[in-house]
């Protein structure tokens, strides 16, 4: 497809500054009733050492859990273990060009990540915030972030932070949920013409929670594909779409899950979910996959096939048609 400025939106750089971040969450970006995509996050932090264990959390649409759930600042920005070995370095897409640690374990850091190749797409709303690690496991947190930036409480360490988030956006929502498949449900299986290439596919029940809301368990049916097993489904989409988002809810006890994606028999890429749970009782996660509009425009249904490259354990697939 040729470039269409209508599908891009306006470029915006949003600056936030927090002089003291004790006992509160820190919102980097909160956009409602708009569509667009986030392309860069910059953080300038002057804070105690424990601040590095805080997480960058990204929520989109009306999900009750993040689509990206952080595991520490250094992980999100593409590094490991307090940026050891690569401090004061940078590259095209990510970097930490300034890192200073004093004798009181206080850190001054500048970090950035440019998501040019993997932007965060949103069709209704998005919120990006830094969440403190302290107390998360013991606090009941059910999110409904569309209501307000202050619709829940977070614990976060003291410090000072400046953020610049860059995104393209435009007014009014740009997407609608057009289908939803729940694995292991006979009615849903029949409606979506769900088919497997093997009779040995496992479907089992679990009671577990999302990592970021550990005291709120859900009962889910899990469809587990082994390597090279395939599942095919038919999904409803809007004929006027300019692309489709597949939102997968999955059990992340098996790390680095990966599957080949086909749409109407044509290769559509690979779906890779790198995160993993550290306990079975908080193993639910959400991840989004974007289908290119050349495979969906003008259609009201698509046949989507997943072929497992690793173990692939899913509980549901939500289909969001991008409508602008």
Strand content: over 45%
Order of helices and strands: EEEEEHEEEEEEEHEEEEEEEEEE
- Rounded average pLDDT: 82
Q: In angstroms, what is the radius of gyration?
A: 20 Å
Cα distance, first to last residue? 16 Å
Helix content: under 10%
CATH class of the largest domain: Mainly Beta
Q: Any idea what the CATH superfamily of the largest domain is called?
A: Protein of unknown function DUF2961
CATH topology of the largest domain: Jelly Rolls
CATH architecture classification name of the largest domain: Sandwich
State the secondary-structure class. mainly beta
Instruction: Please report the total strand number as a whole number.
Output: 22
What's the domain count? 2
Shape: globular
Sequence stretches where pLDDT stays below 50 over 5 or more residues: 135-158
Number of helices: 2
Q: Main sheet, how many strands, which sense, barrel?
A: 7 strands, antiparallel
Pfam families: DUF2961
């Amino acid at each position: 497809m040729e470039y269409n400025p209508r599908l891009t939106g306006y470029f915006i750089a949003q600056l936030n500054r927090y002089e003291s971040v004790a006992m509160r969450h820190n919102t980097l970006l909160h956009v409602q009733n708009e569509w667009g995509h986030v392309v860069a996050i910059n953080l300038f932090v002057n804070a105690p050492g424990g601040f590095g264990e805080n997480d960058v959390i990204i929520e989109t649409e009306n999900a009750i859990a993040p689509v990206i759930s952080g595991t520490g600042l250094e992980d999100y920005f593409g590094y490991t273990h307090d940026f050891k070995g690569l401090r004061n370095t940078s590259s095209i897409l990510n970097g930490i060009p300034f890192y200073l640690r004093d004798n009181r374990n206080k850190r001054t850091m500048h970090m950035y990540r440019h998501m040019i190749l993997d932007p965060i797409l949103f069709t209704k709303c998005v919120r990006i915030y830094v969440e403190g690690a302290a107390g998360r496991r013991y606090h009941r947190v059910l999110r409904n972030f569309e209501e307000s930036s202050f619709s829940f409480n977070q614990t976060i360490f003291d410090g000072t932070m400046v953020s610049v988030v860059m995104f393209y956006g435009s007014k009014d929502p740009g997407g609608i949920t057009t289908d939803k498949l729940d694995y292991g449900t006979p009615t849903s299986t029949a409606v979506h013409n769900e088919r497997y290439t093997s009779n040995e596919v496992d479907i089992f029940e679990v009671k577990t929670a999302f990592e970021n809301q550990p005291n709120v368990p859900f009962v889910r049916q899990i469809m587990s594909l082994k390597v090279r097993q395939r599942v095919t489904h038919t999904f409803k989409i809007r004929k006027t779409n300019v692309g489709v988002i597949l939102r997968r809810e999955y059990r992340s006890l098996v790390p680095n899950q990966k599957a080949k994606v086909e749409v109407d028999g044509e290769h559509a890429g690979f779906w890779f979910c790198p995160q993993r749970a550290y306990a079975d009782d908080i193993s639910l996660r959400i991840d989004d996959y974007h289908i290119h509009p050349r495979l969906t425009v003008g259609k009201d249904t698509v046949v989507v096939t997943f072929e497992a490259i690793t173990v692939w354990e899913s509980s549901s697939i939500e289909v969001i048609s991008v409508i602008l």
